[in-house]
Every structure is written in structure tokens, then in C-alpha cells.
Amino acid sequence: MSLRQSLVPTELLGRVAMAHEMVIAIGAALGAATAGFTAHPFGLRAPFYGGAVLLFASSLISTRSVQKAAQPSQNSMVVAGRETEAHRSTRSTPTDNAEIH
């Protein structure tokens, strides 16, 4: 299961996927136009250098946002099917309520 599938409600997955595809298509068109306008005055290597800088910056930003999304919130009791320490300490077990004779 992808991160998108785990974060987005099932009924919205189609809309989110199409929004993602639209952003990719618009980005490709804008990137091609920007590269052409950049290459004309600065040479053919300039768009590649600019693209490398943008790719590196976007990878840093996306890595941090994915790490934040993957971290459980302090208020949640169960994360990805596993209990947190706070949930284990508040949960009573059958032996907790039984009297020892």
C-alpha cells in the first residue's frame, strides 16, 4: 500500500490520483517552456543545472513532509495496527481486575 493510499480516504482516491496527474502534466508543460526560455540566453546546459537544483530542493522538501506524515501523532492510540505505549499503559488486562488468592 502506498503512502497516498494510507492517508487518503478510499472514496477520494480517484480524485487525488487525477489531481496528481494534472499537476504532473502542467509541470511538464511549464518545465519545457521554462527550459526553452532559459536555454536561449544562457545556453543549453543552463536548464539542466536549474533542473538539478530544483530536483534536489524538491526531494528535500518531500522527504521531510513524508517523514512528518509517517510519524504518529501524540493523541493517536493505535497507529498502523500497532498499539502505542500510552495505549498499552491505559488498557486493562484480565489479570489486572482479578483478585490473586
Count the beta strands: 2
- Shape descriptor reads elongated
Please identify the structural class as seen in this structure: mainly alpha
Contiguous low-pLDDT stretches (5 residues minimum) are none
Over the alpha carbons, how many angstroms does the gyration radius reach? 24 Å
Topology:
Elements (H helix, E strand, L loop, with lengths): L2 H5 L5 H30 L2 H26 L7 E2 L2 E2 L1 H6 L3 H4 L4
Helix pairs in contact: 2-3
Describe this structure in words.
It is a single chain. With 101 residues, the protein is mainly alpha-helical. It contains five helices and two strands; from the N terminus they run H-H-H-E-E-H-H. It has helices at 3-7, 13-42, 45-70, 85-90, 94-97; strands spanning 78-79, 82-83. A two-stranded antiparallel ribbon has the order 1-2. Strand 1 (78-79) and strand 2 form a beta hairpin. The mean pLDDT is 79.
Name the features.
101 residues, two-stranded antiparallel sheet, 2 strands, mainly alpha
Give a brief description.
With 101 residues, the chain is mainly alpha-helical. Helix content is 70%, strand content 4%. A two-stranded antiparallel sheet has the order 1-2.
